[in-house]
Structure formats: structure tokens, C-alpha cells
Input
Amino acid sequence: MVRIIDYQATEPLRKVNNNSPIAIPHSPRRIVLASIRISIPRRDANKNHVELIATVGVRGVSGTSQILFKIFRDGKEIFRAQEGVESDPTSEVNYIVTVQAIDTNVGQGSHLYQVTAENITIGTEAAVVGPISFSGLAVAPDDRDRD
Output
């Protein structure tokens, strides 16, 4: 069994809006899509898991972009995933991308988690059109479960 330490969630964009796209910059620049702050008490330091889930609606604008999604804890990259996004109007151009990561044995204190996106394909364009959500669930072993 586990015990919930902290749970935080944010939803900067609630729905898709193709009329107000947010350009995804080319690497090494990136856009911060969402941030949350998770607190780990001393008693649970270094014996926990923080489960992170980000969902982002993106749209291909030109070419086939490769979008690199990263999750940072306190400014340090802890996770990355890549998704291809096409812009062919006869095919799909809107995508919902979900990335999940588990950060283990996080130290005591308040930790800032951020999810970012960057386009790593030169000569292509992609944009965030929504929705965007980002959540973090911190859990630790339940001390009452000792045999």
C-alpha cells in the first residue's frame, strides 16, 4: 500500500483552439507548457515516487516536425520523449500527446516540475493548440504495512 504525500495539477488550456496557436520554437529554445510544485516532507524524503502526467494538444503547421517534450525537476532534466507531427491537410494535423514519467526517491522540500516542448526538425513548423494539462502525484510506502 501507498500513502499520498502531495497532488498538484494545472490546466493552462482547457480546450483546442486552432485560431490561437502557440509556435513551438526550434531547439535549443523551448517553450514551458506548464509548471507544478510538489512538496516532499522529511519523513518521506528519498523513499517516494512522483508520478507525472502531461497532455498537450499540438498541430503540424509545415512539414513533419519532431517535437521533443522534456520534464524538469528544479531546472534539471529528468525525462524526455519525442513525437512526430505532420502538417498534411489530407491527413491528421491535430494531435494529443501524453507523456508520463516517474521520478523516484525525491529529496525533502518543495520541487518545481516543468514540462516543455521544442521542435528538433529544421525547416518545419508546429504549434501548441491545446488542451494542456500537467499533474503530479507524490506517494510513499504506508508505514502501517509492515509485516
Summary: The chain has a mean pLDDT of 96.
